């Protein structure tokens, strides 16, 4: 994370765009956030862009984090599952779908996830907004007992 604050990505497919736009607005006024990159989709996109399948969104977010352009991402699709699967295809990326407070906490403190995903068709908007706020407040402790478990993943991937 940048010392000046967290650098975040938000993204969604067509099924998650409304939640993505609300979270984007929330993050832009959050003092813990240094920068937010909106990777789309957006309602004013051309139709072929707006209906882009969810794997493109998840992979793009994962690649930006892998390449150091951002610290973490919050992604949406209908269920949150598709964008999580896609982001997890990028080496070094740990993405989790979570719709409850405990899982949101553990996704960082246990798993050092850089990507949180949620489903617009699954969770209410106000809960999604709360969970996003909570999630960016957690930081993984590399000296915790969870670190050696995460290391099994990074060793497997060689990154
Ligand atoms: O995981 C997939 C997402 O929920 C996506 O937004 C919807 O995909 P579908 O149209 O294949 O159900």
UniProtKB/TrEMBL annotation:
Transmembrane segments: none annotated. Belongs to the LacAB/RpiB family. GO terms for molecular function: isomerase activity. This is D-erythrulose 4-phosphate isomerase DerI1. It comes from Arthrobacter humicola. It comes from the Bacteria. The keyword Isomerase applies. The keyword Hydrolase does not apply. Keywords: Isomerase. It holds the Pfam family LacAB_rpiB.
């Amino acid at each position: 994370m940048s010392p000046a604050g967290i650098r975040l990505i938000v993204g969604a497919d067509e099924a998650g765009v409304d939640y993505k736009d609300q979270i984007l607005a929330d993050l832009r006024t959050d003092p813990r956030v240094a920068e937010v990159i909106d990777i789309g989709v957006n309602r004013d996109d051309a139709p072929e862009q707006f209906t882009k399948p969810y794997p493109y969104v998840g992979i793009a977010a994962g690649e930006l984090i892998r390449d150091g352009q951002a610290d973490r991402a919050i992604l949406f699709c209908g269920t949150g599952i598709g964008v999580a699967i896609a982001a997890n295809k990028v080496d070094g990326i740990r993405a989790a779908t979570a719709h409850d407070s405990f899982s949101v906490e553990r996704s960082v403190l246990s798993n050092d996830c850089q990507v949180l995903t949620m489903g617009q068709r699954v969770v209410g908007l106000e809960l999604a907004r709360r969970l996003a706020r909570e999630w960016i407040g957690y930081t993984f402790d590399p000296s915790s007992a969870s670190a050696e478990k995460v290391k099994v993943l990074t060793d497997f991937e060689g990154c």
